[in-house]
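To: structure subgroup
Subject: Chain for Friday's discussion

All,

I'm putting the inputs and outputs inline so they're searchable in the archive.
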Amino acid sequence: MTRRFRPEATDIATALALLTRIPVRAGFARSAEAAWAFPLAGLAVGLVAGAVATIAGWLGLGAGLIAGFALAALVITTGAMHEDGLADCADGFWGGFERIRRLEIMRDSRIGAYGVIALILALLLRFTALSTLAHDDLIVTATIAAAMLSRAALPYLMVLMPPARKDGLSVTTGRPPRDAASLGAVVAFLLSWLVVGFVPTVVAASAIVGTAYLTSRIATAKIGGQTGDVLGATQLLGEIAALTVFATLA
């Protein structure tokens, strides 16, 4: 008989330990079950970036500087793990011609031209969107919502896609229960609705779903599944999609 999934308070600390550099005491026995709390880790990241943006605004800094400091806070709080995932995917997917070679490149600590270009574009797009939001005084709420919604997509990829490797973070974490993925999506949607409103949340969530689907299709074609790098790239691209939506609707 399959054990029924039940969320636990300790899952929040586990999610923070897995997805951020915020110092917390956490166990990893429930790493898969804790996937429902990924959006709450995003909430913490968004709150840190939002606090930095708020302080920058109090100091009278311009929209560009507010956006720059908020972006720096996002990168530092996560330890740039999602940026690293995007760079590794870009190098591996388009730097190798066979599945095994692509996976080898993704594990290589060195960065290639594809990775550099992907990072530059990702930082530029986020900075531009955040600058627009800072100009319209929406940067705090939009950053929080984008951080939560983009992380809600990750458990679904872990559920629906097989691991591309026999080892690595994705394998050790395991596949979350479907109920955990669904709960995470509900948590992210409701909290985002609370901070940015219903329509922006629906549009941003739809954009993230489309982005995650496209990323999953490319990953399946290139390496036959998902890895920690694929999850990181998916989060970052989803965040860019959400911020773009919020900036457009501002």
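Points worth raising on Friday:
The chain is about 75% helix and 0% strand.
The mean pLDDT is 94.

D.
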